[in-house]
Amino acid sequence: MRVAIAGAGAVGRSIAGELLENGHEVLLVDKAPTAISVERVPQAEWLLADACEITSLDEAALQRCNVVIAATGDDKVNLVVSLLAKTEYGVPRVVARVNNPKNEWLFNESWGVDVAVSTPRLMSALVEEAVSVGDLVRLLRFSHGDANLVELTLPEESALAGTQVGDVEWPEDTSLVTIIRGTRVLTPSREDSLEAGDELLFVAAQAREEQLEDLLSVRREGS
């Protein structure tokens, strides 16, 4: 998979390193000469250019990219890169970094963003996830379909503890994608049973989040 990353700062380089380790082809683009540190990520391609300029993106051959990541520290730049990647080059997947949570509402499909990652919001969500049992925590927002990646730790008193995944009547527009049980990461099947303490990750429509939380947190009669 070919991935272009706009922004070669600490965030962009870290993402590049992870992707390269997973066998992907990575291009880092930055307009600041001081950001071009080839020795830090030598396996990547590097391009000194302004990612907001069509001529630069032509040089980057963005049309050959499977994914574009707008990872600069400027929300305006990330929005422009996202819009150009989607509308001018038809990039299938566009991921954008949100630096200021007040700008989150802009990072949607109208600006070409498929996935918006807000570092401040993600950090606060991870704090909530670490201390919350029985409360739904929103980890990530997907622009298409108004869906979110959400997490809930199944409480001891949940009526669903001991129930097989296939026997649960999940709300519409929700999908259980992962069960984290201790150190194990499970891809759920219909025969898997839910256990108290399981961390459950769902992709769910925002309108269904309250319904999902109510379902998973229901107390048994008499408890």
Q: What can you tell me about this protein's structure?
A:
Residues 137-218 form the RCK C-terminal domain. Residues 1-117 form the RCK N-terminal domain. With 223 residues, the protein is an alpha/beta fold. 24% of the residues lie in helices and 27% in strands. It has five helices and eleven strands; from the N terminus they run βαββαβαββαβββββα. It has helices at 10-21, 54-59, 75-87, 119-131, 209-217, and strands at residues 2-6, 25-30, 45-48, 67-70, 93-98, 115-118, 137-142, 147-153, 174-181, 184-186, 199-205. The protein has an eleven-stranded mixed sheet, sandwiched between helices. A hairpin with a 4-residue loop joins strand 7 (137-142) and strand 8.
